[in-house]
Structure formats: C-alpha cells, structure tokens
Write a structure and sequence with these properties.
mainly alpha, two-stranded antiparallel ribbon, about 230 residues
Amino acid sequence: MHIEDGILSPQAWGAWYGVTTLFIIPGIREIKNRVKENLAYKPFLAMTGVAVFVISAMHLPVPVTGSCSHPCGTPLAAIIVGPFATAVISAIVLFFQAIFLGHGGITTIGANDFSMGIVGGISGYLSWKILRGLRSPIWLAAGVAGFVGDLMTYLTSSFELALSLHGHVPLLKQWMIFFMGYGPTQFPLAIAEAVFTAAVLQVMVNRRPDLLPGVLRKESRKEEKSDAVRV
C-alpha cells in the first residue's frame, strides 16, 4: 500500500490529496466533538494510532508495483474510534512512516491514506455494522471487517497505480495486473488480519468494554429495543 514518491504524477497525487481532505476535515471535527464528550477518547485515539503504525509497518516489498504489502489495522481502528477519525490518524501514521521508516512518500500520503485509512477503514466498518445488524457474533463480524478492509485497501491502491500508469493498456486490465502483483502476499495477510481483528476486538469486549466508547452502548440499546418488541 505504501506507494513511493515518484510513482504517481503531480496531477495524480495532488488530486488524491484533494479527495482525502474531504474525509480529513469531518474526521477532525469528529475527534474534537468526541474529546469534548469524553476526555479519555484522546489518549485512546493516540493508542489506536500507535497500533496502526506498528501493524502497517510490517511490510513485504512488491517489486512489480513499486509498493509493498502489509496488514493495515485500519478496519479495527474504524470500529473502535470511528471511520473518519481513522482517516486522520492514518494520515499522521503515514507521515511518520515516510519520514522515519522510508515507507511510502510525502507526495503520496493523500493516495496512501485514501486506500488504507479511508477505503480500508470505511469498508471494514461497514462490514462490521452490516453483520452486527444481522446479529452476527462479534468475532465473526470483526474478522470479516478485517479481511474486507485489508483487500479493499489493496484494490484501491492498485486502482491508483493503474489510473496513473496504464498508458495504452486498458485501465481495468492494468488494475487487475497490479492487484495480482499484491495477491500472493496479500491474501494470506488479509486472512491474518481477519484473525487478528477478531481476536483483539473479542478480547476488548470481554475484558475492557470501557475502551470501546459508544460501540457497545449503541448495540446494547438496539438489543434492548428488540427484546422489548418481542416481549
């Protein structure tokens, strides 16, 4: 997912910065509002950012794409701190990874955040909400969220590369070529991220439900209403 500097044209990375900003601004507002409601949200957000940094720093180079393959951590982050807040902390994570680890680049933070922080986070979050709405077990909903968010991140990153580099090759064909470059490493990593996301969220629910601001309270209210209707 870490697209390096020099891979995308200035027009491309500039456009991705613009698109990402549309999610960063409401993300900053969401963080400010939730900090006002709960002062513990800020350190919890910082802890989540550190987790995303560590998880997404474990990378495997993919020479075909000029990028690398790794788990994301953003589906889990989106579930526990919110999808828009995840876009913000992912941008910060990508900045520090580019500066200190040489993963990705400064010019490509917008594109990388869009694939990992926005698409990866939101697709994982929506998978979680849909399955929980269908009364799926927490571990299953979280596992599917991790798997979907991980693969969607790389589908998006492949699209970003294909959009800039397909030349005379049909866009769809080049998109799939790039994605298949990720495939051998990313499918096993997506399964691993599914297991990791399921395990972490289930442990948090069992042992520290107080660290899930709003998540369990909303779901418990829905369950109470459904129980009342059945009675």
